[in-house]
């Protein structure tokens, strides 16, 4: 990742230097204070924020897989670390001295700044806030686990987590397991008392130190799960679960910061929301990546905003998002599409207002083998409309569903998101085929290069429909269609037949 802060005292700030730990390739901290010094250009601001959301989404997809217990033995560490390095949130090599810290300082800067940018972007709505806290905690826990794995001789003499806490300004009183001496009754009594505090644990033999922490908020999770002894409002936390204490403290700190902003009304008055260059990006960032499912609110139409057999061939080039336009043009040419493209495209047609009868008629006439279509695909479309099986209407796929749930297409497949799935040359060629010139393509390619796929789709909309409303574009293909349809064909006049 290129250097984030352009100039200012913050370039060498201790705020960032506290994120590094000898022998580790990960930067990790409690984000005790926001970055208030230095300057960052707008492109870097947007890039690091979008990349952090992409990282949190990736971590969520891997941890959710584990939570479902599809295969609890799968090790996701290599995948997550590869993604972190790709997005610029992991060091290319471990740090060992001050020279290494200076060299990798931009990575710590990007990490700290992007965390606080997302706090602002995700903090206003409860569901977005919960998603952010949950996945930031997962990222923190992952980094902490990797820190515990560091094997450095001069770090092994004391707890790496204790050293981490000290670097963040947190010091807990501790009790070390006494050594037994023959005839030393006081030592033996202390040892018995120590054992009483840990004897109920399965890992009691591994416990050689206890940290004394406040019940609330630090040790609340451990107390709730009955993993520690509580005396006089203080929890005696074994060294074997110190990482849980760190994680709980991290979560509490982030949640508390949101409450403070709520009470002070600080979100709308925060400088980034006042600055017009940033406010639009911050407001659309959660929608663009979490993709609120607009399909669940019914697409009401007076008939002039619906897709139909009569107008589809004349309106698709101007109103379909690139993913659907690509599928449709391939469908017309080959008269066949594979499973994931069928699911993506047929549900999109449904969301555009096409009736069940029209959807069946349209696909039956386009399919290369009408008899085969009747046998194998009529049921599927009827199922999508809630006329078969569970008789529950299926919503069209949102951008988030397309990016997360659908596999990356292989040869002969056309489903998915072209901004993600195409390489740079392929995407540029596709956009040229869609009629965009080099000047229009350039900002789209910049967003694609920084993994901001849904913002790239929004930019495509802005370039092809400069007077249209971008609200919700990049969150759902049907929102793209609706906004584009309204712009090109109006809300009262029917499109060309």
Index terms:
Transcription Elongation Factor S-II, Chain A, 497 residues, 24 helices, 56% helix, mainly alpha, four-stranded antiparallel sheet
Physical arrangement of strands within the biggest beta sheet: 1-2-4-3
Number of helices: 24
What proportion of the residues form beta strands (DSSP E)?
under 5%
Query: What is the N-to-C succession of helices and strands?
Result: HHHHHHEHEHEEHHHHHHHHHHHHHHHH
Radius of gyration: 28 Å
Under the CATH scheme, which architecture of the largest domain would be assigned? Up-down Bundle
Question: Per CATH, what is the topology of the largest domain?
Answer: Transcription Elongation Factor S-II, Chain A
Indicate the structural class.
mainly alpha
Range of helix content = 55-70%
Give average pLDDT, whole number.
83
CATH class bucket of the largest domain: Mainly Alpha
Shape: elongated
Biggest sheet layout: 4 strands, antiparallel
Find the count of extended strands (DSSP E, 2+ residues). 4
Low-pLDDT stretches: 65-73, 291-304, 492-497
Q: How many domains make up the 3D coordinates? A: 3
Distance between the termini: 50 Å
């Amino acid at each position: 990742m290129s250097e984030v802060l352009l100039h200012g005292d913050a370039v060498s700030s201790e705020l960032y230097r506290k994120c590094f730990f000898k022998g580790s390739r990960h930067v990790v901290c409690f984000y005790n204070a926001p970055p208030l010094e230095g300057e960052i250009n707008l492109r870097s601001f947007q890039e690091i924020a979008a990349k952090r959301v992409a990282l949190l989404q990736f971590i969520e997809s891997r941890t959710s897989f584990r939570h479902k217990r599809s295969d609890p033995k799968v090790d996701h560490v290599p995948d997550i670390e590869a993604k972190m390095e790709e997005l610029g949130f992991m060091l290319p090599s471990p740090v060992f001295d001050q020279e290494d810290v200076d060299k990798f300082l931009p990575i710590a800067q990007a990490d700290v700044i992007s965390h606080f940018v997302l706090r602002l972007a995700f903090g206003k709505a409860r569901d977005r806030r919960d998603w952010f806290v949950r996945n930031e905690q997962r990222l923190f826990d992952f980094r902490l686990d990797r820190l515990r794995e560091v094997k450095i001789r001069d770090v092994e003499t004391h707890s790496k987590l204790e050293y981490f806490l000290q670097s963040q300004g947190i010091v807990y009183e501790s009790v070390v397991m006494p050594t037994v001496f023959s005839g030393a009754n006081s030592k033996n009594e202390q040892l018995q008392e120590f054992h009483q505090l840990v004897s109920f644990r399965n890992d009691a033999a591994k416990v050689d130190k206890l940290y004394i922490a406040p019940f609330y908020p630090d040790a609340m999770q451990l107390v709730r799960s009955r993993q520690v002894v509580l005396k006089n409002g203080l929890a005696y936390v074994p060294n074997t679960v110190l990482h849980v204490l760190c994680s709980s403290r991290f979560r509490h700190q982030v949640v508390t910061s949101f409450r403070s902003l709520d009470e002070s009304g600080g979100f709308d008055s925060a400088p980034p929301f006042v600055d017009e260059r940033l406010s639009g990006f911050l407001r659309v960032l959660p929608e663009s990546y979490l993709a609120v499912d607009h399909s669940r609110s019914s697409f009401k139409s007076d008939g002039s905003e619906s897709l139909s057999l009569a107008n589809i061939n004349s309106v698709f080039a101007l109103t379909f998002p690139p993913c659907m336009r690509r599928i449709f043009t391939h469908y017309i040419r080959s008269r066949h599409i594979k499973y994931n493209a069928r699911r993506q495209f047929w549900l999109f047609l449904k969301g555009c207002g096409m009736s069940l009868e029209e959807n069946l008629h349209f696909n039956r006439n386009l399919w290369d083998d009408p008899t085969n279509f009747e046998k194998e695909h009529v049921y599927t479309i009827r199922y999508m409309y809630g006329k078969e099986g569970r008789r529950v209407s299926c919503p069209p796929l949102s951008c988030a569903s397309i990016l997360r749930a659908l596999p990356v297409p292989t040869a002969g497949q056309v489903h998915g998101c072209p901004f993600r799935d195409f390489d740079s040359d392929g995407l540029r060629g596709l956009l040229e085929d869609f009629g965009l010139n080099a000047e229009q393509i350039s900002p789209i390619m910049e967003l694609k290069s920084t993994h901001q796929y849904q913002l790239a789709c929004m930019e495509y909309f802005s370039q092809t429909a400069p007077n249209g409303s971008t609200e919700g574009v990049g969150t759902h293909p049907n929102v793209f269609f609706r906004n584009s349809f309204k712009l090109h064909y109006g809300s009262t006049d029917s499109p060309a037949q």
